[in-house]
Design goal:
The complex is a heterodimer of chains A (319) and B (470). Chain A has helices at residues 3-33, 43-52, 56-63, 69-78, 86-99, 106-124, 132-153, 158-181, 183-186, 196-208, 212-219, 225-233, 242-260, 267-280, 284-290, 292-315. By secondary structure, chain A is mainly α. Chain A has two domains: 1-154, no CATH class; 156-319, no CATH class. Classes of the chains: A mainly alpha (319), B alpha+beta (470).
Chain lengths: 319, 470
């Protein structure tokens, strides 16, 4: 496969995952605006979500410090100036798909192109006729259709591995960043325990990862900091946990190594195995002892190294 | 008042090829027709077959209008056309071999040396080289118009990278999907073997240094190009990689592509970029689309390029007037397809005649294409004619003139129902170890009433083209 084709598939996966991240943030952001404003404020939550996507300054530049539902929708959904908005991501994923059409089945292209055409139709409608729920539904629905088409129709070849690696590394990174911004909430601190704010913030994190229902199925009972952290970091059933994302990424890297044999360097696979080994050796207490922020910084850095490894091994077009 | 040949009606009676369609048209209610038309458009948009016109801005994903009425040829009509097209393709390749070799046709005084050797499309870098099987132009697109029952004229030849074949294939797919009964009840020759024939043609011109099954690629300028859809469509149907210049590099006398498993050698490049962008070391230094060193590899037989660099010298509008001469000179045959009478303005007699009759003629730039830079005398205002006359005076050698051709019409769906609209035809002739032509081509139609300009950039549409089998 052409290196450029592989790179486009990898980034197509990343952008599709990123679009869904934006939609989840939109869901949470809209919920926050429905709550009463207090000094420490639910509204500060919004600021921290912006920080999670690394976009505080850019948002302030475009919208000032006023947080309204309309601003949040514009920023996270429509704004082409925001490279992580749903519209930007869908457009870039579709652009990438158009470039590598020969590597996609017609069903996948169809789903991707349809998402883009529907997005353009949506953009032409008066903003007053749209609501947040419709926008998040739009994104998850199209996201699911594309992923469903990929799973059902793509050949299980190297292209499929690159596409999934894009999805999975992006997901690992997004979960870790969100946790990192909110890590202080998860640290057991005497003065917060049991307070309404504390609980609500945990809910926000779970909701931002579409995990609030799943959490209750998996753990039941009271929501505690260590349960939330465990669920999102080390639980192998949780679909967006760091462990699951990394584990699945390793599976795809192994697939590439098997397919390509010894001739092709495999630094990404080696690095991912090492990271996975270190991750499974920890339990949640060890992570809190080490410092949640320090742990997450290490993990985000590892994901970046694996991603660079994928680039060096396969996407750079060695001569 | 010019009369136009109507391909559907002759002497008040519906002609045989269209007989079976006339029932179909008459029994289709207007609502169904509109519904089908909308369905066709949705299909085109979903598969993403769109067309962007350079410099026009607007919707980058514009569709070329598709007309559901097919254009039909009888078997006998097609066989005559086919012989003429193949004859022309053979002569054009013989001409290219000759002018990059000994130049016999020039020595024999059958074509002026200036037109060949001072032609902007003549590549000095190619002189003395004979590509595999002596073929320079592997895909020849010949634009043909009809003016009467048995009168066909060649409007121009395209020896470089003629586009439009994806429309020929997609138009057929969509017609078969929407109107299967039409195909069940009529014997229509298939065209979907084209990608396989193209692949075989390209494989047959692999360079001598290629020992195994040749690796073929399509070289595209990239996804911003208006024909990108066609490039990826053909790559997909042939099962070959679609590469950009940056995916290729030259090393040790061969061309390689960058893959996830390291370098892979490339044997045949079907390029869809112009000569001047192919190799920045040989042509335009600022080209980002090409591959440095490609020309050296080509000349040393490490890779084949289709069409060969320099093939454009055979298809310019001034050289066009000599194609019948080429057919006589190289093949010893009489041309089966006619050339349109052409006045070349660098000849004094022709110049005087044309300048006195601008209002009745079509004047074209020698190197222009796509319906740009031309004057259609009968449609132009006095002021337009005067301003064009000024441009001609400044550089007469840059222009040719032709009579306004009475392009035939074919029935076409329009607002009010079915009406005659003017059409042309571009068949795609493949040249490798054999010369092949699929029965069909791209029919372009001028959708505006009375318009003779079929270019998609100027409001033209496309139709499926049928050849009925015996």
């Amino acid at each position: 496969m052409l290196s450029r084709t592989a790179a486009n598939l990898f980034w197509m996966g990343r952008h599709l995952e990123r679009a869904e991240t934006a939609a989840r943030l939109l869901d949470v952001g809209a919920r926050i605006t429905l709550l009463p404003n207090t000094a420490e404020g639910y509204r500060n939550e919004w600021g921290s979500l912006l920080r999670a996507s690394g976009a505080q300054a850019a948002f302030a530049e475009g919208y000032g410090d006023e947080i309204t539902q309309e601003n949040i929708e514009s920023w996270l959904f429509f704004d082409r100036g925001n490279p992580s908005s749903v519209a930007s991501c869908i457009e870039r994923a579709r652009e990438g798909g158009r470039i590598v059409r020969t590597a996609l089945t017609s069903q996948v292209w169809d789903a991707l192109n349809m998402a883009y055409q529907d997005l353009r139709a949506l953009e032409r409608r008066p903003r007053g006729h749209l609501d947040t729920a419709m926008l998040t539904d739009f994104t998850t629905r199209h996201g699911s259709t594309v992923r469903g088409a990929i799973n059902a129709t793509q050949l299980r070849n190297d292209g499929w591995h690159f596409l999934n690696l894009g999805y999975l590394l992006e997901r690992a990174d997004a979960t870790a960043r969100l946790l990192d911004v909110k890590y202080y909430v998860l640290l057991p601190r005497v003065e917060f325990v049991g307070s309404g704010l504390d609980n609500y913030q945990w809910q926000v994190i779970l909701r931002a990862l579409s995990a609030h229902r799943a959490f209750h199925w998996a753990y039941g009972g009271e929501v505690t900091a260590s349960k939330v952290a465990d669920f999102l970091i080390l639980n192998g059933e949780s679909p967006r946990s760091l462990l699951t994302s990394l584990y699945e990424a390793v599976w795809h890297l192994d697939g590439l190594v098997r397919r390509y044999g010894d001739e092709v360097p495999a630094s990404a696979s080696a690095r991912a195995h090492e990271t996975l080994d270190q991750l499974v050796r920890r339990d949640i207490e060890a992570i809190f002892d080490e410092g949640l922020h320090e742990f997450l910084s290490w993990f985000i850095n590892e994901v970046a190294s694996i991603s660079n490894g994928v680039h060096d091994d396969y996407l750079s077009g060695r001569m | 008042m010019t009369t136009y040949y109507n391909e559907m009606v002759d002497g008040g009676r519906v002609r045989e090829p269209y007989a079976m369609l006339s029932d179909w048209i008459e029994t289709m209610p207007a609502e169904i027709r509109q519904m089908k038309q909308a369905e066709a458009e949705a299909l085109f948009r979903r598969i993403g077959i769109t067309f962007a016109v350079y410099g026009e801005g607007g919707d980058p994903d514009r569709l070329i209008p598709f007309d559901m009425m097919p254009r039909v040829f009888l078997q006998g009509e097609w066989r005559r056309l086919e012989r003429g097209i193949k004859q022309r393709a053979r002569a054009l390749n013989a001409f290219l071999r000759d002018v990059y070799g000994r130049g016999e046709i020039v020595r024999a005084g059958r074509i002026p040396a200036r037109l060949v050797y001072r032609n902007a499309a003549y590549e000095k870098a190619v002189v003395g080289f004979v590509p595999p099987r002596g073929v320079f132009s592997h895909i020849v697109g010949i634009d043909i118009v009809r003016t009467g029952r048995d009168e066909f004229y060649v409007l121009e030849d395209n020896c470089r990278t003629p586009s439009g074949v994806s429309y020929m294939l997609e138009n057929r797919e969509i017609m078969m999907r929407m109107f299967p009964a039409l195909f069940r009840n009529n014997r229509i020759e298939p065209v979907d073997q084209y990608p396989e024939l193209l692949r075989r043609t390209l494989a047959s011109v692999a360079p001598a240094k290629c020992e195994d099954a040749p690796t073929i690629v399509i070289l595209t300028p990239g996804h911003y190009n208006s024909a990108y859809y066609e490039h990826s469509f053909l790559a997909n149907l042939m099962g070959v990689e679609l590469v950009e210049g940056s995916d290729l590099f030259v090393d040790g006398g061969f061309v390689y592509m960058r893959t996830t498993q390291g370098p892979k050698r490339v044997d045949v490049i079907y390029r869809r970029i112009d000569d001047q962008f192919l190799d920045p070391l040989c042509f335009r230094r600022d080209s980002m689309l090409g591959v440095p060193g490609l020309m050296d590899v080509w000349r040393s037989g490490g890779v084949s390029i289709a069409s060969a660099p320099g093939a454009g010298v055979a298809d310019d509008k001034a050289v066009y007037t000599f194609v019948p001469e080429m057919i006589r000179f190289y093949l010893g045959e009489e041309p089966l397809l006619r050339n349109v009478q052409t006045w070349t303005l660098w000849k004094d007699d022709d110049y005087r005649y044309v300048m006195a009759n601008l209002k009745d003629l079509v004047v074209k730039e020698v190197h222009g294409s796509g319906g740009y830079g031309m004057l259609i005398g009968p449609r132009a205002t006095r002021a337009e004619i005067e301003s064009f006359a000024g441009r001609i005076k400044a550089d007469p050698g840059n222009y040719i003139a032709q009579p306004v051709l009475a392009l035939s019409t074919s029935p076409t769906f329009v607002e009010e129902g079915v009406a005659p609209r003017h059409v042309d035809l571009r068949p795609f002739c493949l040249c490798g170890d054999r010369i092949e032509l699929v029965p069909g081509g791209l029919t372009r139609v001028a959708l505006r009433e009375g318009s003779l300009v079929v270019n998609s950039s100027q409001g033209g549409g496309v139709k499926d083209t049928w050849v009925l089998s015996e």
